[in-house]
Amino acid sequence: MSSAARDWHALAAGCRPDGRMFIGGRRGDSAAGETFDCVSPIDGRTIAQVARGQSADIDAAVASARRAFDDGRWAHKPPAVRKKILVRFAEKILAARDELALLETLDMGKPIGDSLSVDVPSSARCIAWYGEAIDKVYDEIAPTARSALALITREPMGVVGAIVPWNYPLLMSAWKLGPALAAGNSVVLKPSEKASLTALRLAELAIEAGLPEGVFNVVPGYGFEAGEALALHMDVDAIGFTGSTRVGRKMLEYAGRSNLKRVYNELGGKSAFVVFDDCNDIARAARTAAGSVFYNQGESCNAPTRVMVHESVADEFIEVLKAQAPKYQPADPLHPDTAMGALVDDNQLRTVLGYIDTGRNEGAKLLFGGQQARAESGGFYVEPTVFEGVNNLMRIAREEIFGPVISVLRFSTEDEAIAIANDSPYGLQASVWSHQFDRVHRVSRALRAGTVQVNQYDEDDITVPFGGYKQSGNGRDKSLHAFDKYTELKTTWMRID
Length: 497
What we know:
The chain is of the alpha/beta class and 497 residues long. It is built from 16 helices and 23 strands. Helix 15 links the parallel strand 20 (429-433) and strand 21 (451-454). The protein is globular and about 70 Å long. The protein starts with 7 loop residues before the first helix and ends with a strand.
């Protein structure tokens, strides 16, 4: 039976997720026996009890990871062996595609079609790619004098703490796990308390694929308990964090208060989508902007929520954008044709609606949406929302909303566009729409962002790095550059007589 033909509501009704944590190769309750409710944003229904990990559980997980690292059960395996196991792990993810997609959609509200076609296969590709890469990464010999031999080798860091968000729970876990495990580290993963289910299932699939017990542990829980304990732990060598800039600052603070562990933050964004008057397809630019912001309910750190359009083509752009918005009206996330689902929880719903009210109060013109939707479902839905008449001093233009809200700003010159785009504490991603080669090159170089898309948005691949400038973080996920976060460089100097 094809995935589209499946009765996802029947599968959801029969789904009984296991919310117990995963330490040392097996499921178990928290040390205190405490749990919290896993509430589906689709309808507000409690679908599982999830173990509430706290400091004692983090201690147990880190100890398990440390034993596994120190005895070499994973770190000392030849790269070719690690590759085979990780490729098998990726195959297990694909084999469990429907199960993982259902858990992802039930847990955080994204459309089942997106979970099936994007999140699960992308996660599998990530794990497989790093598995395939690890036996093709070479060390170096420095060009010293003939009387010396200087070797430069990459070594695993040890125990890596990975803390991932709720907007792409499965994929963000894979982005951390792929390079960390391939390099030979042991991992303790702390998923968001808002979406923990796929991370817990991943750990079981890893064991089935042959990953040794203790190498990959998952402790769900609240950030102020399990997350803080992991970041402060003296036996954790590095933290890979994806989340808000506010919490990213805490990660750096925790490192300073503990063992100065490496901290790699992938944080928020307020990406600029810059459309010049020489763009030869204004309609495609507007369709792309709508699809990029409303995808995943706007809960994407790189969403281009600041859409900047040259004043001479702004009216044309806005008319197409307004026509696109109704196509993303929230609908049943378990229907295969749904384009936009539910926000992750009631708190996020109230946050997004609060920003919409702020935009109105600041004088922005609401062109479409702006209301809660599907309230009768019991879930958490917001209409696709478009503001015009926005300037870069407004909160809706400066702060990360993390919801389906587009702000349209007008500009008149290239220099003005660059100045507005760069006038942000963030620098994760940007887009330039122009068909003048020299302008594209000039503006792309001037924008302070980790990724600049040209006449497109959000096209990417595991082979290219992802990360930002300024308060959007440091380090890079994806590509071979991710190994920099999870390995130490060692120089071995030999005198040759």
